[in-house]
Amino acid sequence: MRMLSKEEAKKLRTAIRRRLAPWFEKNARDLPWRRTKDPYAIWISEIMLQQTRVDTVIPYFQRFLARFPDVATLAAAPLRDVLKLWEGLGYYSRARHIHAASQILVRDFNGQLPENPEKLAQLPGFGPYTVAAIASFAFGQPLAVLDGNIMRIFTRWLASSEDIGQQATKKKLQKVADTLLLRDKAALVNEAWMELGALICTPRQPQCAICPMRGVCRAFSLKKMEAFPKKRKKMSVPHKVVGAAVIVNRKNQFLIAQRHPEGGLLAGLWEFPGGKQAPGETMPECIRRELREEMGVNLDIGPHLVTVHHAYSHFTIELHAYFAKIRSGRPHHLDCADHAWVTREEFDSYPFSKADLEIIRAIRQLPELPRWQSSGT
Ligand code: SF4
User: Fold this and answer.
1) Radius of gyration of the chain (CA)
2) Can you give the pTM of this predicted structure?
3) Does 208 sit in the ligand 1 pocket, CB within 6 Å?
4) Which residue's CA is the closest to the ligand 1 atom numbered 1?
5) Same domain for 198 and 287?
6) Is 213 close to ligand 1, i.e. is its CB under 6 Å away?
7) For 311-361, what is each residue's pLDDT tens digit?
8) With a cut of 50, which residues of the chain have pLDDT below it?
9) Do 156 and 271 fall within a single domain?
């Protein structure tokens, strides 16, 4: 990407000051995290908003702040409670990082977020975007944020065809952001870029007719708005076929297992035990093998309960849940962190992935449980 010429930078900065900033002040959405200057609340909102739509985040943000109103309350809570409130929001490593960071803040920073960006950057879950967002929104520091929306806007303003999936392009766009940021209005301009991307300069059918930046936008003058940013070829998304055992004991309790807490997309969450189907295996064979490997129990497989289809960011799954009973063995933690026997009501105390919540929904819709019960406890 060519660098901004001095003259181009001046024109864009003038348009940002005279057009974009007033547009934002007039049109900014009234969002809960915009009504506060509390660095803790701003931090939680920024983490929740990563990869997640504003409408989805609002109720999660409100519930989170009601349950954990400050860093100290969050740090003192069990991780399970934090994951439970995060349930359904996805990218659970965010919740684990927030929890870990809160404990560091209590230990080393008197329960406050530090203003120093270098200290912020040392906390779990604080990448360059989050550091710049907190430093700017909470502490008014002149650091420019850069996310997918802002990269789209900049490539349109500059009619740049470089691939925004490349690290080198991101670095150049960060320099563009640093150059265009108005130091006396850093937080406002950062938010204005984001708002323009969310409301006007959308990926498809941008509303150029009402855009405050159309006078300086090269993509608009070329009438090629949707040609930017350059699209990468879509990689095909892997599809996983997975089996899960729904095991009930004579007290009508269900066997659930906790995933290992370190690493992985759904780490630390609870699930109906099972795993990925191997080539050539039938689904009952898959579930029997997985339960032997994961918990050291031998199963008889019963009726099919439900099949759940779910799309994660990098793969899709097809989860087949079958009732099963333990023929021999007691659950051990061979390849899981923990296990529990819980009633239908007690499911609500444990954090599950969206796919496992669908299994719970199917269980709760049954008029009665099938006579397919294990003696295990
Ligand atoms: S003029 Fe159109 S393409 Fe350019 S910034 Fe505005 S909405 Fe985006």
Assistant:
1) 25
2) 0.82
3) yes
4) 214
5) no
6) yes
7) 887 889 999 999 999 999 999 999 899 999 999 999 999 999 999 999 999
8) none
9) no
